[in-house]
Specification:
This protein has 19 helices and 13 strands. It is an alpha/beta fold. It folds into two domains: about 260 residues, Crotonobetainyl-coa:carnitine coa-transferase, domain 1 (Rossmann fold), CATH 3.40.50.10540; about 90 residues, formyl-coa transferase, domain 3 (2-Layer Sandwich), CATH 3.30.1540. The longest helix is centred in the middle third of the chain and has 24 residues.
């Protein structure tokens, strides 16, 4: 069965999370992602991320780098650059998530590589972009949650600003970078001309403010944190404590509020003139929400979910363990098994992109330089003696 991205070759100079996350999804869909690592620094630092790390490998690294190939190559040496350029001739794209000022220094932008392969697409994922006054600054997910206002929106009123529980800025920028790279490749396939694609954590974090930014820029709206993770304007759309846990209700359409009231056994609330529409419920939320809070305390989360599921948008607040046990995880093939030398039967999350003509195959992330012989022999036609000499010289 043909894979959706079969025949697409991407040279990936990636490290840690955001860049590998972008490549992960393309590799799962069949792209030939060749990860270029520096043997002198033991490769991607993700290989040594604790707590589950051994033999220059880790579950963290495996999470982001499955279905990749790994070659070692010193891109700073003259011979290493020469070999890299030979690979560029045969590739569709070069992808990196280095600091914003490094791609130009390393000679991996389109102005450098387009001379070798006019259709090459050079995508850079960085903190502040490759052409900004802050391109040389170090950049990490947590910083952008703070800098772009996300933490100011998260947490209870009166409490400290709060970060997301996972690296949302890294992951979302990885998705944007994968999309941007594919746009560049699509354009190159049509026009025969490659390009630079510049994606940054700063820009992505800003774009995710979305309608809040529009409200602020046009009407001076100042977002405030809401109690019980409530939506800023839709009522009721928030967290409610139950007899044994918590659930989230989201009445984001007018039709849901009367249904909710019926299911809660208080149909009269839907007939109250103060609660007839979005504006009324928002204006009178200080009267409505306390009533709902007391009602939800009377039953368990499961009891409420049995009553509401399929009628009103509702979800239990699950732990990670409970999330992994959700029946849809199996039904949607989101938990997959990958056999690994050190970690055995390694359970991972599968690709969220389902293509009807393709059933994904999952292979573990590669050992450092595992595919040297395959790539250098089969792609570049090197002999074993040449490869051995390059290894002795520290080029690969």
């Amino acid at each position: 069965m043909t894979k959706p991205l079969e025949g697409l070759t991407i040279l990936a100079i990636t490290q840690y999370g955001a860049g590998p996350f972008a490549m992960l999804h393309l590799a799962d869909l069949g792209a030939n992602v060749i990860k270029i690592e520096d043997r002198h620094s033991q490769g991607d630092m993700a290989r040594r991320v604790i707590p589950y790390s051994e033999n220059n490998d880790s579950l963290f690294f495996q999470t982001f780098n499955r279905n990749h190939k790994s070659i070692t190559l010193d891109l700073k040496s003259a011979k290493g650059k020469e070999i890299f350029h030979r690979l560029v001739e045969k590739a569709d794209a070069v992808f990196n998530n280095l600091r914003g000022d490094v791609p130009e220094k390393l000679g991996i932008t389109y102005s450098d590589l387009g001379k070798i392969n006019p259709s090459i697409v050079c995508c850079s994922l960085s903190g502040f972009g490759t052409n900004s006054s802050m391109k040389h600054h170090p950049a990490y997910d947590y910083l952008f949650q703070a800098m772009l206002g996300h933490m100011s929106l998260t947490g209870e009123p009166g409490g400290p600003p709060t970060k997301y529980g996972i690296s949302m800025m890294d992951f979302s920028t990885g998705v944007m970078a994968a999309l941007g790279l594919m746009v560049g490749i699509f354009q190159a396939k049509i026009k025969g001309i490659g390009s630079d694609v510049d994606v940054s954590l700063f820009d992505t974090s800003a774009s995710f403010l979305n309608y809040l930014a529009t409200w602020h820029l046009n009407k001076g709206y100042e977002p405030e944190r809401t109690t019980q993770s409530a939506h800023p304007t839709l009522v009721p759309s928030q967290l409610f404590a139950t007899k044994d846990g918590n659930l989230v209700i989201m009445c984001n359409k007018e039709k849901f509020f009367p249904i909710l009231c019926e299911k809660l056994g208080v149909p009269e609330l839907a007939e109250d003139q103060d609660f007839q529409d979005f504006q009324g419920r928002y204006t009178n939320k200080n009267r409505l929400i306390p009533i709902l809070i007391e009602i939800f305390k009377k039953k368990t989360t499961d009891e409420w979910m049995n009553l509401l599921s399929g009628y009103v948008p509702a979800a239990p607040v699950n732990t990670v363990k409970e999330a992994m046990e959700h029946p849809l995880m199996t039904e949607r093939e989101m938990i997959v098994h990958v056999e690994h030398e050190n970690f055995g039967d390694m359970k991972m999350l599968g690709t969220p992109i389902k293509v009807s003509s393709h059933r994904p195959e999952y292979k573990p992330g590669p050992k450092l330089g595992e595919n040297n012989e395959e790539v250098y022999k089969e792609v570049l036609g090197m002999t074993e003696d040449e490869i051995e000499e390059l290894q002795e010289r520290g080029v690969i």
